[in-house]
Design a protein that fits this description.
By secondary structure, the chain is mostly helical. About 80% of the residues lie in helices and about 0% in strands. The chain has four helices and no strands.
Length: about 120
């Protein structure tokens, strides 16, 4: 299986682009504070999946998948801050929370599945 075929990776890449397309339109102060942190966090979800996928041993891979999950939760925090500060509207916030929860379930299931293939 290729990395690009993993649904959790596809969803992670997609949410990263959606966040970018919103943040890029913010004023300089908002982009430099909340926006910079939000984009780094959301981009780290897919980036850590990629790094883990490229590792030879599944235990090493798992560490990066855990980092990916941490970045997903960090993204949730930055989106909450963006919502509280009226940088995104309620509809956008709810959409992203739904996507994050969906990605979280898929990521947890993926993490559980990789250990079973090697134990």
């Amino acid at each position: 299986m290729k990395l690009e075929e993993l649904q959790v990776y596809q969803l992670s890449m997609s949410i990263g682009e959606k966040v970018w397309n919103i943040v890029i339109k913010w004023d300089n102060f908002s982009r430099d504070t909340v926006g910079r942190q939000l984009v780094r966090a959301v981009d780290s979800v897919a980036a850590n999946l990629s790094e883990g996928f490229g590792r030879y041993h599944y235990r090493e891979s798992k560490h990066f998948y855990y980092y990916s999950r941490g970045s997903l939760y960090e993204t949730k925090t930055w989106l909450t801050k963006a919502s509280n500060r009226k940088l995104i509207n309620e509809e956008e916030f709810q959409y992203f929370m739904k996507e994050i929860n969906n990605i979280g379930v898929k990521l947890n299931n993926y993490i559980k599945s990789i250990g079973k293939h090697h134990e």
